[in-house]
Amino acid sequence: MDAMPSLPALRVFAVAGQTLSFTRAAEILNVTQAAVSHQIRVLEEQLGVPLFQRTTRSLSLTVSGQHLLPVAVAAFEQIERAVAGVRRSQAMLAITTTASFGARWLAPRLPRFAELNPEIEISVRHTEATLDLAAEGLDLAIRGGLGKWPGLTSELLGSSVTMPVASPDYVRRLGLSTPSDLAHATLVHDGNRGDWREWLIVAGLDPALAQYGPLFDDENVLIEMVLAGQGVGLAVGSVVEALLAQGRLVALFDRQVTLSYGYYLVYPPGALALPKVAAFRRFALAEARAGHAGVPVSGTSPHDPRNAMA
Length: 310
Known about the structure:
Layout: H1 7-19, H2 22-29, H3 33-47, E1 52-54, E2 59-61, H4 63-91, E3 92-97, H5 99-106, H6 110-116, E4 121-126, E5 140-145, E6 153-166, H7 168-174, E7 187-190, H8 194-202, E8 215-216, H9 219-227, E9 232-235, H10 237-245, E10 250-251, E11 257-267, H11 275-290
Parallel strand pairs: 3-4, 3-5, 7-8, 7-9
Antiparallel strand pairs: 1-2, 5-11, 6-9, 6-10, 6-11
Helix pairs in contact: 1-2, 1-3, 1-4, 2-3
């Protein structure tokens, strides 16, 4: 197999062939005109054919040059695209979180992160499925649970502080004024019945009440059901802050309960060596500490298999 010609010389040829000017090629490549002429001579010697026809006033391609130029240009364009893709992947921060957390906690904060870190692009994947971060090409995750995922580092963003909420009409219809009135209400569940069971125990009520009521796997659907006056749901102020302010929902009994799990920032060991991961960690922890809108609860218990990550 014949040896490949010089790549630097091919690069110079691609630019000079497109511009048909050694002077212009030198400006584009930020080298001297003499350097351009030298690289072209090197390439022609390696190929054993002339690539340009030179006159005192013009420069044109030979037949060999015309055959080589489009291939050389396309090759370097492909290399440039590949290099740009590699650079973007290094700057792209890939995160996974649940749909409700992503929509109600993460998304409102991303503009602030972008303003502070304009060089970092973010890709967010919303899922509650079991994930292998490395296999999925993900840098970090935000998940609800007890903070224990084998082989991964986890840092608490916030505990799950919940309160019962209902529509004003539903409160009036059922006359909900004390926690004991929940015995006559429909409890709406998100993920499983563990949240309501824990809340009822802390409130001194019969946890068996949590055995009843519709069950949804999406907190957003739960909120819509409560807004429609179909029952009482558990939520965090950050999740329903705007709805409470608008009067579309009412927080009941002035009773909040901190559940036994929370939301965690989860990442592989050594991930903080990547500046993009370190930057997001600093930002997320600062946002959680500042408590701009609190940290929402997903409604899934720490024992729910959807909280697992490989």
